[in-house]
Amino acid sequence: MNQQSDVIVIGAGFAGLTAARELSRRGRSVLVLEARDRIGGRTWTDTRFGLPLEMGGTWVHWTQPHVWAEITRYGLEVTRSPIPDRAYWHTGGRVREGTPDELLALFDPGMTAVLAGSRDWFEPFLREDFDALDGESVLDRIATLGLPEDERELLEGMWALNFNAPPETAALTQAWRWCAAASGSWQLLFEACSTIKLKHGTKSLAEAMAADSAAEIRFGAVVTEVTQNANGVTVTTESGETRQAADVVVTLPLNVLGSIRFDAFAGVTSQASQGLKTWIKVRGDVEPFLAFGGKDLPLTYAHKEYAVDGDSVLVAFGPEAARLRPGDVDGVAKALAIWRPDLEVVGTAGHDWVDDRFSRETWPMLRPGQLRQVRALRRPHGRVHLAGSDYATGWAGFIDGAIESGLATARRLLSR
Questions:
Q1: pTM (predicted TM-score)
Q2: Closest CA to 318 of 271, 286, 270, 350
């Protein structure tokens, strides 16, 4: 069946929802094709342990202008994660315990040195002579600092957390983009990554945006091919159905672009994030705490997020989902015991985004040498337009970046 729309949007994550809303509210007929049975993309508020838990993206911040404007637009409430009372960190084969301030002080020399100069390169736009810099990994930069062993190990773990990947695969330019967006402050960056969240979940924002749109959303529509000619674009789905439009906006994660046949551009390199996020329910109402470890641990970070029915729910991250799956209760328990052998794990919950055919990645983080490729992908490819947090110019890797990219793409189409 051939049906004509002004624009087809592939994917109902935040970039797709933003583009669809902006276009449809300006009179364009918009069809959104979503492979899953829900909106939200790599954000997904699901009920586990009797709580609304975020399986994917979670935190927002007032330094992120696009998402904060949307929160204001729809009158949504925010809340904050618990402030930790204690900190645990694993270096040199043993665990230390102290205050959060003591732990963060250990990070300061290395984080300051790694991120020095970020605002010179990324405020507000990337300098054009960035090629030599973009070939460097975060681990390359850390190796030049001559830090004490404990500080180096923690610093590598911090960047394994931020990239949700081994830091040797992490582009220094990506780290600098984040820091520049946080006004050059690594402490503000850390706050933006783990502090403020939507009180009723990311689904509250996704649902508000979808309700504010006149676009049609079709679920279970797995796109396999996108072709174009002078008259428009034809989109083919796995079921063999074809749809036509004047333009198409593709909001798929970078790591699954290769699942669609395009005649508009060549294949792309996969981005870095290959890790996991897991929720961990432990026995008893434990004090709020955070825990850090080096890049070689199966979990590099954990903190308490909720108390429920006399027990506690933690959230934790690791750099390699192939090594530790989010639902592996025994494996997660062993990993947590590196810091807290006193805690009894009674359950875990999560979603394996790396094994998910519609994502193949967690939050988008670029590899060394990949920034120029992604910048090229932002440009229109005839009637094919890419949008998403993977392609954002500002807070790439965050909900904010997805909204920014969706807005920019819609504006481009509306101006034609």
A1: 0.96
A2: 350
